[in-house]
Amino acid sequence: MFLMGPVKQLKRMCDKTRALATTLMLTCLVLTLCAAFWWKNFGLALLFCILQILSFSWYSLSYIPCVREAILKGVALCMK
After folding, report:
1. Which PANTHER family does the entry mention (predicted)?
2. Residue 28 and which of 13, 14, 36, 77 are 20 to 30 A apart at CA?
């Protein structure tokens, strides 16, 4: 965020290619906080924390051209 500024970062977060990843990342962040502080459920907090890390990784990979497509193809090949 410090390289391009907060406004440009927020605009890029809402791009068509990153909208789903951004939504998942922010949703998992909120659910992690709810599970930890409001519901006081360690298992759910841990699950949401893991999902948050995975969604942030997927979001970060969107900044590298063609990497997400390559990962999806690799997973599809492993599933066959």
Report:
1. VESICLE TRANSPORT PROTEIN SFT2B (PTHR23137:SF1), VESICLE TRANSPORT PROTEIN-RELATED (PTHR23137)
2. 77
